[in-house]
Amino acid sequence: MTPCNPRRQPREFLEQLYQAAVTRALPLHNTSAYLPPPPTRASGGRTIVLGAGKAAGAMAQAVEALWAAHAGWDAPLSGLVVTRYGHTPPRPASLVGLAQRIEVVEAAHPVPDAAGLAASERIMAMAQGLTEHDLVLCLISGGGSSLLTLPAEGLTLADKQRINQELLASGASIGEMNCVRKHLSRIKGGRLAAACAPARVVTLAISDVPGDDPSTIASGPTVPDATTCLDALQILERYTHSLPASVADLLRNNALETPKPGDPIFAAQTVHVIATPQQSLEAAAVLARQAGLAAYILSDEMEGESREVGKVHAALARAVARGQGAWQKPCVILSGGETTVTVRKPAASTPAMGLSATGQAATPGKPGRGGRAGEFCMGLALALQGQASVWGLAADTDGIDGVEDNAGTFVAPDTLRKAEQLGMKINDYLSRNDAYGYFEPLGDLLFTGPTHTNVNDFRALLIL
Questions:
Q1: Given the DSSP bridges, would you call strands 457-463 and 390-396 parallel, antiparallel or unpaired?
Q2: Which end of the chain is more exposed for a tag (fewer CB within 10 A), N or C?
Q3: What is the DSSP string of 395-458?
């Protein structure tokens, strides 16, 4: 990719940085080196592909496309993966006209649904009756926590949906959410690997979590879990009020404990993280340097309230723009990670616009539309206060910011001024988490459609 001129086309340049980050994380670019040896023909073993996540469809297609050169078309290969609705990519040219060997089904994200439950039941059924001669190739990416849903004893799908919605709105970190998900599941937290034993299990994971911990990616269905029932119970008591008393008792009594590190069921397991947020940020940095800019990566592990993280980025950008500190302009500042949004319910008299965070028609007293990227950009724009020569972009690398249809949002030096000319005050929109409603009239939403990968938040500040 040849970068455009950042001075003449700042917005287009920021989008190019985003595309460079996404391209670096695409499964077809990252899978070949990690494919394991297939079972020997003499053993009669099979290769079963199981998986879940926003990138699972593209990961499955990458395996199919690479399998002929790796093992030969006559080598047994079958399986099932589940991805988010609308996230199954078109079949690549190399597979057109060939029989599909790995089935791809779709389900809901971020709140699980019956389709995800049915897919999870089928995946667990495929894991039964395997032998030590079989190979299970697990394809795991962000979003798998919601897409793989098998409620624990005493829980219904409706219970899981309520708990998930409360955690999403609470501001709980991804680590906290996934600790709960592991303990309230019959497939996550290492339980899928346990079901596959004694087969050899190789997990290929695309990381969407700070620190790239495989036990946190999609709630670690194939890796041991160091968290405990007590950890999960304390998180639930802190953030939710929908936990049935019977399930609280099961957690209290350690009846829903997950397989732990050192358990022999993991002896035949291998895990490879094939794409990470840091790699994607570095790809964007390379493109920025090709355009003649300095490039600084803050961190790929940033967490916290999205709007507050936006304000911190703004303070740094203002300092650089004014020639303060060690960083030199013109430059690009990049960061990744997974921030959170605590959904605020405005007073009944406060007007709400558009749709709510759950996609329902918004009414007074309900929150607005928007995801982490939009919330970050509201905090960024508010704190920049029209700072000259600073542009920003925040977007989710899966192409979907929260439950909306945009990938992310742009901020420019005239963002606040344009909004005020339309009679929009940013604090009103912040009060109801309505980033979509704020940036849509300005024409500042980024639309890409599903990207078929997911290394979580991407943020870039351009300072000229």
A1: antiparallel
A2: N
A3: EETTS-STTSS-SEEEE-TTHHHHHHHTT--HHHHHHTT-HHHHHTTTT-EE-----S----EE
Q: Which helix (H) or strand (E) holds 79?
A: strand 78-84
Q: What is the 3-state secondary structure (H, E, C) of 294-338?
A: EEEEEEEEECCEHHHHHHHHHHHHHHHHCCCCCCCCCEEEEEEEC
In terms of Cβ atoms closer than 10 Å to its own Cβ (0-12, 13-18, 19+), residue 113 is middle
Strand partners, 140: 52, 205
| Domain 27-150+185-224+259-275: CATH architecture, name and number where available | 3-Layer(aba) Sandwich (3.40)
Q: So where are the chain's domains? A: 10-23+277-463, 27-150+185-224+259-275
pLDDT band at 97 (very low <50, low <70, confident <90, very high): confident
What distance in Å separates the CA atoms of residue 315 and residue 308, rounded to the nearest whole number?
Answer: 11
Burial 384-393 (b: 16+ CB within 10 A, else e): beebeebbbb
Range 10-23+277-463: architecture per CATH = 3-Layer(aba) Sandwich (3.40)
Q: Tell me how crowded residue 15 is: count the other CB atoms within 10 A of its CB.
A: 20
Q: How many C-beta atoms surround the C-beta of residue 365 within 10 A?
A: 14
- Sheet with 135-141: list strands edge to edge: 102-107, 78-84, 47-52, 135-141, 200-206, 269-275
Of 351, 368, 363, which is closest to residue 440 (Cα–Cα)?
368
* Sign for the pseudo-dihedral over CA of 411, 414, 415, 416: positive
Measure the CA–CA gap between 206 and 30, rounded to whole angstroms.
9
Would you state the structure tokens that stand for residue 96, as one six-digit string? Answer: 């057109």
| Cβ contact 345:366 at 8 Å | yes
Contacts of 68 (CB under 8 A, 6+ apart): none
Q: H or E segment at 337?
A: strand 331-337
How far is residue 455's CA from residue 447's CA, in Å, rounded to a whole number?
17
Give me the pLDDT at residue 246, please. Answer: 87
* Chain segment 272-302, per-residue pLDDT in tens: 999 999 999 999 999 999 999 999 999 999 9
Closest residue by Cα to residue 88 from 455, 452, 397? 452
Let me know: does 50 contact 138? Beta carbons within 8 Å: yes
What's the CA gap between 185 and 180, in Å, rounded? 9
CB within 8 Å of 65: residues ≥ 6 apart: 28, 92, 94, 95
pTM of the predicted model as reported, rounded to 2 decimal places: 0.91
The answer to whether 167 and 180 are in contact (CB under 8 A) is: yes
Structure tokens at 111: 């709140």
